[in-house]
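Chain A, query sequence.
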Amino acid sequence: ALRMSLPLSASAGAAIVLAGMGALTLLQPARPLLPDLTLQTLQGRSVALASLRGQPLVVNLWATWCPPCRRELPLLIQAAQQQTGARIVLVNEGEAAPRVAAYLQRERLTDPGVLLDPGNRLLSLYQSPGLPTTLFIRADGTVQRVHIGELSTATLQQGIAALRK
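Chain A, predicted structure.
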């Protein structure tokens, strides 16, 4: 009797675990939409994030004091210039325009239209534990993937390719 009940118990346990996993999936919050925030460029021009919907986006949250951010910035600027199939949006978190502009000039990096988020609103909204944080956003504005940490060329290319599917 014990031999017969053991497989039955294991099957019942597996069913409970699988059902529990399904419940966890259902309870996960939906990926948030790109928020309706207005940020400023280094030149003081206002840009509403909602106006960027309609095309795939790669939104990178960064700061000049962050070593991995500084290492990946040339890769992102190059991708922005190469029309990679997604618009690359660089959002500086928590710093003033003069500091960001001075950093770009000192490093001889072209300003691809950096946006400023002095209140760290995006970092807070997406509950990121740190910088850099990269959001891969579908054309409809939903966040498909969040990458925490330094991006490699391969990770960036894979993220952009997934946005096109």
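Confidence is low (pLDDT under 50) at residues 4-30. Residues 38-163 form a domain with the Glutaredoxin fold (CATH 3.40.30.10).
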